[in-house]
Amino acid sequence: MSTFWSLWIIVIVVGSIGGCTWLLFATRKMKVTGEDVGETPTTGHIYDGIEEYDNPLPAWWFKMFIATVIFAVIYLILFPGLGNFGGLLGWTSTGKWQEEVDAAEAKYGVIYDQFAKMPIEELAGTPEALKMGRRLFANNCAVCHGSDGRGAYGFPNLSDDDWLYGGTPAKIVETITLGRAAAMPTWGSVIGEEGVNNVTNYVFSLSGRDHNEAAAKKGEKIFATYCTACHGPDGKGIQALGAPNLTDNIWLYGGSPELVKHTIRSGRNGVMPAQGDKLKASKIHLLAAYVYSLSQRPQ
């Protein structure tokens, strides 16, 4: 935080406390209407014939306000709250978080290390390991892939056997650790709208879906020119490139004609964020075992 904003916050905080303290004492001794003639003092406010009395705060209530002010001053001396001044105790939320993380690592690190020595295939059948892997998945992956791992629009289903980059334990660990970045280029400006329509019909023909045969014939030639480098001449995809298999009926971004046309026309650039800088290798090992187990269960 810059010096200006630090001073800005300090002025506001100290000014607010000082102003409240002054108001407490100033109003406690203020002279009000009727006080000189022995009448019950009022504020002078009258609404619909009703006068507002101005009785002082009870002593215990006034002292509670003063105690609150004293507590605020002591707190701001000991803890952060005045701009860049960190407090005499040196407490920070980051430091507290790190302290809790270190305590958890000391407590559970032995368990993680124990499972890290076991093959992922074996862990996929170990209930205790899967329980820990499920919690890691819920904390780090479920927001995109869903709590059951079945994915959503633009996020792969992890419970089937269709894998963009490969579903072996080693590949799953690689994907989680390093992340993935899709690179489906835009073809709309290259092949035109008619070409987009023709390629869509050809792609539908690969998976046995309803299509226009004449348009598919034209699309086959365009596909051979622009698409086989990634999807292969048979359209079954190349996992090393993350190019999906177009001969099945699994669609990451939806399989309706308009959605497929949009994919061809505008491309796709989905990103799977790397987790290697957030999770230790032992946790990724457990997480990979859980993901691997999802695709091994009967659908």
Number of helices: 12
Low-confidence stretches: none
Biggest sheet record: 2 strands, antiparallel
Radius of gyration: 34 Å
Strand content: under 5%
Within the largest sheet, what's the order of strands? 1-2
Give the overall pLDDT as a whole number: 92
Spatial shape? elongated
Structural class: mainly alpha
CATH class placement of the largest domain = Mainly Alpha
CATH architecture of the largest domain: Orthogonal Bundle
* Secondary-structure element pattern, one letter each: HEEHHHHHHEHHHHEH
CATH H-level homologous superfamily name of the largest domain = Cytochrome c-like domain
**Number of DSSP strand runs:** 4
The helix fraction, in percent, is 40-55%
Number of domains: 3
| CATH fold type of the largest domain | Cytochrome Bc1 Complex, Chain D, domain 2
Q: Kindly report how far apart the N and C termini lie.
A: 53 Å
Question: Could you please describe the fold and organization of this structure?
Answer:
There is one protein chain. With 299 residues, the protein is mainly alpha-helical. The chain folds into 3 domains: 3-78, no CATH class; 95-182 and 274-294, Cytochrome c-like domain (Cytochrome Bc1 Complex, Chain D, domain 2, Orthogonal Bundle); 188-269, Cytochrome c-like domain (Cytochrome Bc1 Complex, Chain D, domain 2). Helices cover 55% and strands 5% of the residues. It has 12 helices and 4 strands, in the order H-E-E-H-H-H-H-H-H-E-H-H-H-H-E-H. The chain has helices spanning 3-28, 59-78, 93-116, 120-123, 127-140, 142-145, 169-178, 188-206, 213-226, 228-231, 257-266, 281-294; strands spanning 42-47, 50-53, 180-181, 271-272. The chain has a two-stranded antiparallel sheet. Strand 1 (42-47) and strand 2 (50-53) form a beta hairpin. The longest helix is centred in the N-terminal third of the chain and has 26 residues, at 3-28. The protein starts with a helix and ends in a 5-residue tail after the last helix. The mean pLDDT is 92.
